[in-house]
Amino acid sequence: MLLSFTLLSFPIFARANPRSSPASFLSASLWIRSLAALSSLQKNLIHTISKDHFRDGWHKLRYESLDDSKLLETTSLDWNSLSKNPEYDSLYKKLENVGWIGLTQLLNEKASATAVKEFYTSLILKENEYTGKHTWNKEDLFAFICGEEVIVTANMIGLLLKIEGTEGDNEPSKSFDYNDAWETISGKKEKFPDSQAKRKLLNVQAKLLHHFIGNSLWYKQGSLEYINQKDIWLLHCVWTGIKVNLAQIIINEIKKTTSKSSMHCGFGPLVTALGQIAQTKMHQHKDMRVICSPLSFKSQIRFVQTTVKDSQVA
Predict the structure, then answer these.
(1) Is 221 among the domain residues?
(2) What residue stretch is flagged as signal peptide (predicted)?
């Protein structure tokens, strides 16, 4: 049974004022602490996870002991409208040519913070810790989603998100030339700057693409002004039509998050989709909310105009 109440439901709060007696304020303090406890209880009741959602006792313990867990949200460009603009249609086609178009369609997608936390804490990263019946493959995700073991492969994610999941590398080769890539993307005849503060993109299409990668692939929080080595590789691949195994890149990113003591988790819509196709108990999670939203029409126009203006000033 869920608990519902307001402070004014209790007479002591309705009549409390600065001239009340010390005893009244003491009682009020006790009531406040009681209400805080009840509120916490209400939250726990809403988001309590049944024990049959967990792989084993270790999974349950890891889930319950992880305090620093966060479901990352993102706001992305509305490619449906951008692709209709002749100035940016070529950029949309670049994404289409390398098998990234599925990422542009992740708009107004929902995810559950508890389901995502359940997914990430279930992942097994070492072969000697896996006791299931499937053959171990270090490239895959060995997960337990809402009561069901699910082995997540790059091919599965590729089909699910409509992105490239079979061809290409999932990281830069040792011979990758960052200086050449920077010159191609930035239009500047200079080496890839050592200082991050000097890695600012001014090319309009490159900046839009970088914004897209930062938000839709990495779920970055904060500024996207400057570019890092991982981003310049991906930008260069899209720009020059080189396919990368985007699905495997996503798997690798999830593994990195899982190995950390604090989990700020992206790819919530992917977890939702995996739970649904595997016919799990995903529907039992009651905290679903939209986490991937498109920029509003006005915000997108403002962002594009600012990007163009920065380019012209430079």
Answers:
(1) yes
(2) 1-16
Q: What is the pLDDT of residues 54-98, one digit of tens each?
A: 999 999 999 999 989 999 998 888 888 888 888 888 999 999 999
183 and 277 within one domain: yes
For residue 85, the model assigns a pLDDT of 83
Is residue 2 included in any domain, yes or no? Answer: no
Domain hosting residue 20, numbered range: 7-46
Same domain for 134 and 67, yes or no, is yes
Q: What is the pLDDT of residue 117?
A: 95
* In a shared domain, residues 24 and 103: no
Beta pairing partners, 111: 289
Average of pLDDT values for 284-301? 82
Does the model's pTM come out above 0.70? yes
